[in-house]
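ok so i was messing around last nite and threw this chain in just to see what happens. nothing serious, just curious
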Amino acid sequence: MGDRALSVKLLEEGYARFESGRFGQILEYRPDRFPEQTRAGPFFANMGGFLYSLLLGFPRLEPNGEALETWSQAPVVLPAGWQAIEVDRLWIRGKPMKLVARQGEVARLTDVDLRSSTE
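result:
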């Protein structure tokens, strides 16, 4: 919605407070809200939702059957303090791609040349 400060608050409440222990395990229940619940984890649904927001939500990518250039039509809105999300390799339609999503810009997906990355 464009509220970068609120985005940070919601990330803290909806994800970070589920993290526990020295290995950063993501729990099923927040210990501060449900102290009676067993600390069970890792809880992959929470981790998957967070990953989904990093790859599609914040970059504002909308995968479709059209060209990759059509997947991103609006400027990226990241949480306050974040400048960019970059992923060096995603496999899209059988090809390695790089994602660059910078605050205020339209996200870009570009081809990755695997030959140059192994030399």
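not much to say yet. The longest helix spans residues 44-57.
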